[in-house]
Write a structure and sequence with these properties.
single chain, alpha+beta, about 45% strand
């Protein structure tokens, strides 16, 4: 097992909680539960990347679709902070003025904050 896999195993419960928070955010917007798939953290490809600010390694994961296009990413910094985003790319289920581009989550440890990234829909 390489260092990135080892690090992911340590962070797996947190990664799953974050992905649940992304799904919960979509339900708040009005999407039916599970209608917009959020990647399973175990299916992301991971590597370590040196954080230029701290000089420490961050765990970076990416989700890709069947054509190899990036669908989202996870970044877990050595200080315990994280940022996760996942593409949604759907019309807003309740408000036609908006398009849901993605959902994001950030925080530290079990403090998970999530929000959608909305774009004004073309008129």
């Amino acid at each position: 097992m390489d260092k990135a896999q080892w690090r992911f195993r340590q962070l797996a419960p947190q990664a799953h909680a974050i992905c649940r928070a992304l799904g919960d955010e979509l339900v708040k917007l009005g999407f039916a539960p599970g209608s917009v798939p959020i990647g399973d953290p175990r299916s992301a490809s991971y590597h370590l990347s040196r954080d230029p600010a701290s000089g420490l390694d961050s765990l970076v994961g990416e989700w890709h679709d069947a054509q190899g296009q990036k669908r989202g990413g996870l970044v877990f910094h050595a200080d315990g902070t994280f940022f996760v985003e996942h593409d949604v790319i759907c019309a807003h289920p309740r408000d036609p003025r908006w398009f849901v581009e993605a959902v994001n989550a950030w925080g530290r440890g079990s403090d998970i904050r999530a929000e959608p990234r909305l774009l004004r829909a073309a008129s």
